[in-house]
Amino acid sequence: MDDLLASIGLTHGTRSSRKGTWTEGARKPVGKKKKLAAETTKVPTPKIDFDFSSLLAKAPAVVHGFSTRSGGVTRVYRPGLPKSQGDLNLGFTSHDERKNVEANRTRMMQALLGKEAKDWKLVTLQQRHTPVVRVLRDTEATHLRGDAVMTDLPHRLLGVMTADCIPVLLYDRKNGAVAAFHAGWRGTLARIVERGVGTMKIEYGTDPKDIVAAIGAGIGPCCYSVGEEVRHEFESQFAYAPELFSDVYESEPIRDKYPLLFMTARAPGHSPIGPQLHLDLWEANRRQLLDAGISAKKISVVGTCTACGTSRYFSHRTEEGFTGRMMSVIGVR
């Protein structure tokens, strides 16, 4: 038997194969060792989504983006998310830990800038719904008070935070200046965007015809109900104010599905419960940009309502104040 086994290259207690020789009972190869795959799998970093302006995206010298709520480490607002997911809260709110916000800001800049992130500084504002416009001249400044900021310094990412208010970004193609605005109804009423364009004229010699503008996601006319006092305020400032307001009746799903059950009900407009007054802040800020001399062809509007889309955006109104903040950013290389 031994002679027979030897004739085919085998002996008692061993087996031959193409990958080496194993001794009977052994688990590891005696010949060339084979690396074993790691038993653990690296969890990928959640994707960070941005909204972008198609117009600003055509300018290679500009970096911009409107953040959404996905891809961060914050879990306080949606604790039911899978452990591998979190919100990208970019504002220092009273609910979230500072370390989470700092980690989220780092992620945001890396996602937007890649390897360039280390060369950039993030400049933010202490926002108070004012018409205050700040000009960044100091290369070391990173936090200012106001609701708009502009600069022509390179590698400065200007950021405004929102959770329903309207973010507006501007780029002067000729002079290489950029600006970011936080426009709630008070800032819009105070013409903060128009003021900003005027400041750019003084600071950089900007011609409005050279400006490209982008209006980001915010609460839309579908959801932004306001009081009559707000309408009166706008009518005192803008001749076109009536075009910014609309009467909206609340949807009644049961009535819509079973109209025959409500045949004896009063027609819309004749019910004791009247319509709600809604304001279109997107259009209000677009009109200000037009009045400032910017061409309609150079104004882009994301047109997505934050109050309707809380799976993608933070909304102060829909989430009753318990929410994070998005950040809209712009800078020049």
From TrEMBL:
Q: Which GO terms describe its molecular function?
A: copper ion binding; hydrolase activity; S-methyl-5-thioadenosine phosphorylase activity
- Cite a single Pfam family from the UniProt record: Cu-oxidase_4
User: Mind listing the UniProt keywords for this protein, alphabetically?
Assistant: Hydrolase, Metal-binding, Transferase, Zinc
| Catalysed transformations (reactions) | adenosine + phosphate = alpha-D-ribose 1-phosphate + adenine; S-methyl-5'-thioadenosine + phosphate = 5-(methylsulfanyl)-alpha-D-ribose 1-phosphate + adenine; adenosine + H2O + H(+) = inosine + NH4(+); inosine + phosphate = alpha-D-ribose 1-phosphate + hypoxanthine
InterPro entries noted in UniProt: Cu_polyphenol_OxRdtase, Cu_polyphenol_OxRdtase_sf, Cytotoxic_necrot_fac-like_cat
Keyword Lipid metabolism in record: no
Region entry Disordered, spans: 8-34
**Signal peptide (UniProt feature, chain positions):** none
Family statement drawn from the similarity comment of this UniProt entry: Belongs to the purine nucleoside phosphorylase YfiH/LACC1 family.
Query: Under which name does UniProt file this protein?
Result: Purine nucleoside phosphorylase
Give the organism, scientific name: Terriglobus saanensis (strain ATCC BAA-1853 / DSM 23119 / SP1PR4)
Q: List the taxonomic lineage.
A: Bacteria, Pseudomonadati, Acidobacteriota, Terriglobia, Terriglobales
